[in-house]
Amino acid sequence: MDFPQHTALITGANRGIGLALTKALLTHGIKKVYAACRNPANMPDLADSRMEVIALDITNEEQVNAIAKRATDVSLLINNAGIIAAGPFSSTPRAEVMRDMDTNYYGPLAVTQALMPALKANALAERPAAIVNVASIGAFANLPVLGGYCASKAALLSMSQALRIELAADHIEVFTVNPGPIDTDMTAGSDFDKTSPDVAAANTLDALERGELDIFPDAASQHMISVFKEDYRGLEAIFSQMTADISAAENAEPA
Ligand SMILES: NC(=O)c1ccc[n+]([C@@H]2O[C@H](COP(=O)([O-])OP(=O)(O)OC[C@H]3O[C@@H](n4cnc5c(N)ncnc54)[C@H](OP(=O)(O)O)[C@@H]3O)[C@@H](O)[C@H]2O)c1
What we know:
By secondary structure, the chain is an alpha/beta fold. The chain has a single domain (about 5-250), classed as Rossmann fold, CATH 3.40.50.720. The chain is built from 7 helices and 7 strands; from the N terminus they run βαββαβαβαβαβαα. It has a 7-stranded parallel β-sheet with strand order 3-2-1-4-5-6-7, sandwiched between helices. Strand 6 (about 170-175), helix 5 (about 195-210) and strand 7 (about 215) form a beta-alpha-beta unit. Helix 1 crosses helix 5 and helix 3 runs parallel beside helix 4 (about 145-165). Bound molecules: NADP nicotinamide-adenine-dinucleotide phosphate. NADP nicotinamide-adenine-dinucleotide phosphate binds near residues 59 and 184.
């Protein structure tokens, strides 16, 4: 991917991986970036005239339709915004599971469908348009303390596979980014070894430049996918051990 030839729109641009990706797009020479945030006031000022901040809650149909009317020059869509509900899956309230699904699956689907006319119009055979869906290594196997979240990311991965096939003839490429633990607000309070969002973003853009369709931007996800490729039950075994470790830590007597 040649970033200077693209106008990007990224959701959840104001913090975490989204902010790191936005900064990295600017340093990689992106032509223009729509930084979409639920609350534009929360977007840090990056002092760059190529950036346009727009209001977008990806679960709000009116706002989704409004950005589709405004961002008609988009050729690179990054579906980054996401939320997470934690807790034992067998007793997670269904409303929480549905919230994860609404934000992590139906949200990116709505944004993608709304921007499809723009992506198709701006796709060229010699410079394809692109959709980048930020899923998770948890899309490949389910860590039960994040059961509803992993299911929503598996749905997003599945959507990406469908669109990759369907849109190839329209010169639209579909990428997935599948991080392991990244050091953002989302993982605050968890004990996993974490990669910094800036490193994950830099690795993601390097992989996009190389044209890698499925991106694993940190050491943990790279290890886990290599286990999965050998034997998908192997990743389930890693998550089973992590579940046992989490449970042991929760039950440990305070020192
Ligand atoms: N951190 C990790 O370990 C990790 C691992 C694998 C995958 N991921 C994925 O990476 C993406 C970014 O995660 P992160 O770690 O950067 O999380 P984060 O620090 O919690 O940031 C989440 C971002 O998503 C936005 N967002 C949430 N719901 C939204 C909605 N309905 N509409 C628009 N924006 C919304 C948030 O906006 P507000 O500021 O307004 O809340 C925020 O900008 C997510 O899809 C996440 O699932 C993260």
